[in-house]
């Protein structure tokens, strides 16, 4: 393990994984490792443990320990002092975009350690047949420089329909359907390569968006200057057989935000915009 600075190993980005040294093999005795995790400004670091097994040392974790603090140094406020092997499920969320982790082992009884993933509180995997989707910090303004990825999964055999109640996303000085400033991109599937159903910005209320399957992928990004409240939307699962007539609306929606800048006709096949 290389300590790259006084703050230990620097981990940056809005998602990643962190493991104790040698995981899933036993960590060494007399180990000492420090990490700081920094996500984009305006977000909060969320750490979710998939595995945890440290030598137990009672409530004070006097043998081996993982200490998690709410900031960038050992002086920051304590969030968790962890040891033992019976603490999952566990998610730890910082109040800001920096989290400090300090792992120590003593002279004996090593274990397998821990494995965790970090993300931000703006990423989410939403499930169920109805629910509410809010942009980060809504109804306050979203921050600069965020990228929030959300998937919505309804029951197999249904489609996801997203209906906006409010929408206000910075669109830049020129009305532009490519949304070069901030944008919400909605895709027909479960990842960033799925077909886009809409790239949204501005302050016109978008029309409802409906997927062909039971998963919708949403990616909200903001650039470095200029913020707005974002959006509030509701999703519902809809029956596959009753949904086809809604698809032309999705084509309108792709054009809808700045329709006057589009000159080429829009085609859609099997209900989807090309
Ligand atoms: Ca030990």
From TrEMBL:
Tagged with keyword Lipoprotein: no
Transmembrane segments: none
The organism's place on the tree of life at top rank: Eukaryota
PROSITE patterns in the record: CUB
InterPro entries linked to this entry: CUB_dom (IPR000859), Sperma_CUB_dom_sf (IPR035914)
Keyword entries, A-Z: Disulfide bond, Repeat
Residue span(s) of domain CUB: 7-121, 122-238
Family annotation (Pfam families): CUB
UniProt keyword Disulfide bond present: yes
Record protein name field: Tolloid-like protein 1
Species whose genome carries this gene: Elysia marginata
């Amino acid at each position: 393990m290389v300590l790259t600075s006084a703050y230990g190993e620097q981990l940056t980005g809005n998602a990643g994984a962190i493991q104790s040294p040698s995981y899933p093999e036993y960590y060494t005795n007399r180990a000492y490792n420090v990490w700081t995790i920094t996500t984009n400004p305006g977000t909060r670091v969320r750490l979710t443990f998939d595995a945890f097994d440290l030598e137990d040392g009672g409530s004070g974790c006097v043998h081996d320990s993982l200490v998690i603090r709410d900031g960038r140094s050992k002086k920051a406020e304590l969030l968790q002092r962890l040891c033992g092997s019976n603490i999952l499920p566990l998610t730890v969320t910082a109040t800001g975009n920096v989290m400090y982790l300090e792992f120590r082992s003593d002279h004996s009884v090593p274990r397998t350690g821990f494995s965790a993933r970090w993300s931000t509180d703006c990423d989410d995997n939403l499930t169920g047949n109805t629910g509410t989707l809010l942009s980060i910090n809504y109804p306050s303004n979203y921050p600069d420089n965020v990228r929030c990825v959300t998937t919505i999964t309804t029951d197999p055999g249904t489609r996801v329909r997203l209906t906006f109640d409010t929408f206000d996303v910075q669109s830049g000085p020129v009305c532009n359907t490519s949304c070069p400033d901030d944008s919400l991109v909605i895709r027909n599937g479960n990842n960033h390569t799925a077909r886009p159903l809409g790239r949204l910005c501005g302050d016109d209320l978008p029309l409802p968006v409906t997927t062909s399957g039971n998963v919708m992928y949403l990616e909200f990004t903001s650039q470095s200057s200029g913020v707005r409240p974002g959006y509030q939307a509701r999703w519902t699962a809809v029956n596959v057989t009753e949904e086809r007539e809604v698809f032309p609306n999705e084509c309108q929606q792709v054009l809808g935000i700045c329709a006057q800048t589009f000159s080429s006709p829009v085609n859609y096949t099997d209900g989807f915009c090309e």
